[in-house]
């Protein structure tokens, strides 16, 4: 329905001069200096190619949302734990009526009717419309091309830069797809198969140490239950729930979970999970994914019978340059966020094992996505992300802003201050930093207040080491850590060994699902956004990891130390200690 206000503005817009439209000259919103690494120009985009174009509108009271988030997440605050409902969050993020009328008027002047949107968020802060390349080029003063991925032959339709009329910069946070190339091969899963690692089949079964010495190299749910002190706790199936977010056509197999549980958690035999398909995501049970199976087997294996849901998020069917078939080229994170924020009831814990170098993400895209995680936190959900598998940075670590200098390369979304980033450890006696664990400091997100003391303490202790290679005012990560090597996973009926911070994130997520279950059983609520808690009263609930480092970019990276460090955060969880602290 058009509001009266909107009708007035439509009239105003159509009376204005056709090009100026009263919105001022175009100003660049985001542009790259060079085609992003890993991509090359292929051809101009066909003018009639249809994009599913997403407009993220400026949210009316986002600062107020952040104030609520801080209050309900701060253990000392009187409002601690009083999370907001979907309706309350929607009211805070709803755009100001001026924003709506200005944006809708601008779209209408370009022949785009917001009434025909493919999707509109319930708060009104996001509109997705079908827009042809020729319309998009006029709308955004841009030039869309087909770009080809160098390492496989995937194609995307993107632009090197885009602009908006001056007056719209105050009303629109992001238009996509534009300059975020992302692409399937860029959004790497953070797990890898370890073909030479020992597996349970080769472990010594007559080992009675606690945890068994075999846990030094071969991780099973039993190892994690002993190491992180959850073995004595039995959760209910009714109080809380956990979500695993998957992308890249990764499917979690029911049959493999059955095999896994009968082999490693026979007491949970028969426990299942549900799959929710988002944005055309598939669920091919004959095509199990290593990442998907790793995630779901360890979340269920550690948190069962707490209900677990696997979100299979459809990505971006590859663009075929010679076909006239329009393809959905939306961005996976935004599609999932739009979906989940539209649900009234959502899991209390989410884990996602995907990430990519922060410098490949346009700033407007990164901030829009990160702020949506803050909305989930305000609603009482804890959001875990793997910290990445390349230490302080993979590859040559050269900057892509035209300066071409070597700098540590932080990971997105781990560097978003509204998620809890999870690093990796290895070994049990002692447990130490695993060398590949992602850690460091964001260049996009400044250091949040909750970690001021912890991070300045660390920076003071390391003096000039790595000076100039990282941003000492940025958000430091990871926040916590868990085992990251030698996970036994069943894939297509066979046990294989998998490593990566991809394994660490579901492990921590499951343990916090148990903590939610415990808290709710005592009359409390879910923990919600965790970092203010982790950096204050809960910090002593972790086993501090004080050895090892995370090399990368031709350096030794950061060393773990007593207290917080950008290798393992505060360390690995001790469930029994955490129970007493939450
Ligand atoms: C499911 O996966 C199997 C194995 O990769 C494949 O042969 C089959 O074509 C897939 N089915 C569909 C409907 O995509
Ligand atoms: C360092 O971080 C700050 C705060 O996030 C940011 O404003 C600044 O641009 C960053 N510097 C570099 C060189 O990336």
Automatic annotation (TrEMBL):
Keyword Hydrolase: yes
Main location as per UniProt: secreted
Localization per Swiss-Prot or TrEMBL: Secreted, Extracellular space
Principal EC category: hydrolase
Annotated Pfam families: Peptidase_S8, Pro-kuma_activ
UniProt cofactor(s): Ca(2+)
EC number annotated for this UniProt entry: 3.4.14.10
CDD domains listed in its UniProt record: Peptidases_S53, Pro-peptidase_S53
Co-factor binding details: Binds 1 Ca(2+) ion per subunit.
Peptidase S53 domain ranges (all copies): 218-582
The organism's place on the tree of life at top rank: Eukaryota
Swiss-Prot/TrEMBL keywords: Calcium, Glycoprotein, Hydrolase, Metal-binding, Protease, Secreted, Serine protease, Signal, Virulence, Zymogen
SUPFAM superfamilies: Protease propeptides/inhibitors (SSF54897), Subtilisin-like (SSF52743)
Signal peptide start-end: 1-16
UniProt name for this protein: tripeptidyl-peptidase II
Organism: Pterulicium gracile
